[in-house]
Design a protein that fits this description.
Helix content is 9%, strand content 15%. With 66 residues, the protein is mainly β. The chain has a domain of 44 residues. A two-stranded antiparallel ribbon has the order 1-2. The longest helix is centred in the last third of the chain and has 6 residues. It starts with 10 loop residues before the first strand and ends in a 17-residue tail after the last helix.
Length: 66
């Protein structure tokens, strides 16, 4: 059952810094040589545009990474 453990969870897309509500289809990705703790949840459009976009989100040094 894909996504069964994600029922009711909300994620923050690193591409646009907006929330991905529960039940919305999205892309889950993580670096090849890292564990699943490094996975990130992206809107499909943000994932497709990630190579054309620069990082506009500025976080303070101690801000949590989503």
């Amino acid at each position: 059952m894909a996504g069964a453990s994600a029922q009711g969870k909300t994620y923050r897309c690193p591409g646009c810094d907006q929330l991905i509500p529960s039940g919305v289809p999205h892309v889950v990705a993580w670096p090849e040589h890292c564990g699943v703790d490094e996975r990130r949840h992206w809107h499909k459009a943000c994932w497709n545009a990630k190579d054309r976009r620069t990082t506009r989100v500025q976080r303070s040094r101690n801000a949590p990474r989503f």
